[in-house]
Protein: Purine nucleoside phosphorylase
Organism: Aestuariibaculum sediminum
Amino acid sequence: MIKIINETTDYLKGKGFDNPEIGIILGTGLGQLVDEIDVLHEVSYNHIPNFPTATVEFHKGKLIYGILEGKKIMVMQGRFHLYEGYTLQDVTFPVRIMEKLGITTLLVSNAAGAINTNYKKGELMLIDDHINLQGDSPLAFRGVEQLGERFVDMSAPYDARINAKFRSIAKNLDIKLHQGVYASVLGPQLETRAEYRMLKIMGADAVGMSTVPEIIVANHLNLKVAAVSVLTDECDPDHLKPVNINEIIEMAKKAEPNMITLFRELIKIL
């Protein structure tokens, strides 16, 4: 894997991806942040050696390098999921590339369903902790110790300092920002009423199909990490209605401006 990482990194350096400071992963329906960036270079995933290719139609599939609030940033516009048939090593490969290129901080966004009935669709949730229900680990492969500590401590996977800044920004700008636990499931099917009840009993405030693998690898690489969920639907098993994926994407787009504001203001002071 080291040889593959070096090959991909060298390719992107040749395309002008020069020492980015901050990496950003944009989740489902959350691509508008790119409009705020002074884009210097961009490459489609299918042109990057060893990169997976996004298979879901609403994921753009581009790696973008540019300037935002005076910082060099690198953005994944479109991410990879286990439900697309990828391995966890595929899903997290871009995080390893971003770290190799120079990032020290990783910011992640996702669209998630609200398990906590006090949280409403259209609101945001800062992830304080997570539950991995994907049935595997991105670190469970031979030779992982060559890339970092095999037994990674996960007692505090999300950076407390960055989370405190997010909360302060949200308070100052009057943006409703919950804080809670994100459960990551395999998907692609949505949950049953019984599964939503189970997730609530387990302590989850929101549920989605991404993020946790990238967070694990980011901790493996000693990156500072923070993640925000855009809550796109309400998962109350006692009042559950059928959900349309297009409606989820539309809700993500409606709620996204507040997430963009949080990310911009945070990057300004990092």
The chain has six helices and nine strands.
